[in-house]
Fold this sequence. Notes:
Layout: H1 7-16, H2 25-34, H3 36-49, H4 56-69, H5 78-91
Helix pairs in contact: 3-4, 3-5, 4-5
Amino acid sequence: MSEPWDIRLVQLARILGVPAQQFDTTAARAEITARPGDLASAFFAEAADSDDVTSIAGAQEFLEERLKFFYELLPEGAADEIRAAFDKRVRAWE
């Protein structure tokens, strides 16, 4: 019997544009390590598209919720890299 789909892996595969069928925890961590800026850009786009995000503080809260959701898949240090790249994009709102 195969393992059940992890919705976090499905979402990361979609966000990063990789085939979900072959995307597992190891592959997710490798992609996140290689592309933290891409993930930050995707989270920024999600925040910008959200009707619930109406301020810089709201965007940062949105990011923290996304990072919390994906926490178990994030390699060490990745959250800080994603935050830094996300913050560069958010500063454009100022």
